[in-house]
UniProtKB/TrEMBL annotation:
Record's keyword terms, sorted: Membrane, Transmembrane, Transmembrane helix
Protein's UniProt name: Membrane-anchored protein
InterPro entries reported for this sequence: DUF347
Highest taxon listed in the record's lineage: Bacteria
Residues that span the membrane, as ranges: 12-31, 43-61, 73-92, 98-117, 137-157, 163-185, 192-212, 224-243
Pfam families: DUF347 (PF03988)
Keyword Transmembrane set for record: yes
Length: 252
């Protein structure tokens, strides 16, 4: 009975193929949605970050207060983290002038610090251990840093490294396949591989989002940021409804 009650407190989804499909769509939506507010609406990166950070904090508060797993609330929080990740990374790399490489290095250190502090405090960083408010807090802080890092890393690879959007997408897709292979054939910690995949899906979504809405002269398709955002949001909604959604189970 105690075990069942603890399982009910885990409010993050089981990691399945559907989870990763929705995650990539959410990160792509974060790029188009973040750009729509900060660039198309001409509100700027700082104002855009303030708006999306407010939404993210509110969503995390609701997620932590929830009594059980709620798929819609979870993915809404993920989307909020991707949009704030987009505008926050752009603010750091462009408005603060530290560049893509500087932003990537800084955010890598912040992500590593978040995981280290989480592990030192609670001893585990896997989804099956997220059954307390403190663990949830660490989880969402880590996600915010990973989403922000992914944006900076994607922009650096596509722009500074000169690979272009499709070239960068191919690089990150290949790296994700390597992580999948390691999951099945290696003894590398599953928690480590999860966070590697979580980080890598973000730049993949970021460069795909840029490919959709950036000008043709820059290698994009120049689609409307608003229409791309709506289409992605609709696809996510359909998948959340159609695909089986269940909470992760307690692991030992």
């Amino acid at each position: 009975m105690v075990s069942e009650n603890k399982d009910m407190l885990i409010k993050v989804p089981a990691v399945t193929l559907g989870f990763w499909v929705i995650k990539i769509l959410a990160t792509t939506l974060g790029e188009t949605g973040g750009d729509a507010v900060s660039m198309s609406m001409e509100l700027g990166y700082l104002v855009g970050t303030a708006i999306f950070m407010t939404l993210f904090v509110a969503a995390v508060f609701c997620q932590i207060k929830a009594k059980s797993f709620n798929a819609s609330l979870y993915w809404l929080t993920i989307i909020a983290s991707t949009t704030v990740g987009t505008t926050l990374a752009d603010f750091a790399t462009r408005s603060l002038g530290i560049g893509y490489l500087g932003g990537t290095a800084l955010l890598t250190l912040l992500l590593a610090a978040a995981l280290f502090i989480w592990y030192k405090d609670l001893g585990r960083v896997d989804a099956g251990s997220i059954s307390t408010p403190k663990a949830e807090f660490y989880y969402w802080v880590t996600i915010m840093f990973s989403q922000t890092l992914g944006t900076a890393l994607g922009d650096w690879t596509a722009d500074t490294a000169g690979l272009g959007y499709l070239g960068a997408a191919a690089i990150f897709s290949t790296l994700l396949l390597v992580v999948v292979a390691l999951y099945y054939v290696s003894t590398v910690s599953k928690a480590v591989l999860f966070w590697c995949a979580f980080v890598l899906t973000r730049p993949l979504g970021a460069v795909v989002g840029d490919f959709l809405d950036k000008p043709i002269a820059q290698g994009g398709l120049e689609l409307s940021q608003y229409s791309a955002t709506v289409a992605l949001a609709t696809a996510i909604l359909v998948l959340v409804v159609v695909l089986p959604q269940r909470a992760a189970t307690q692991s030992h």
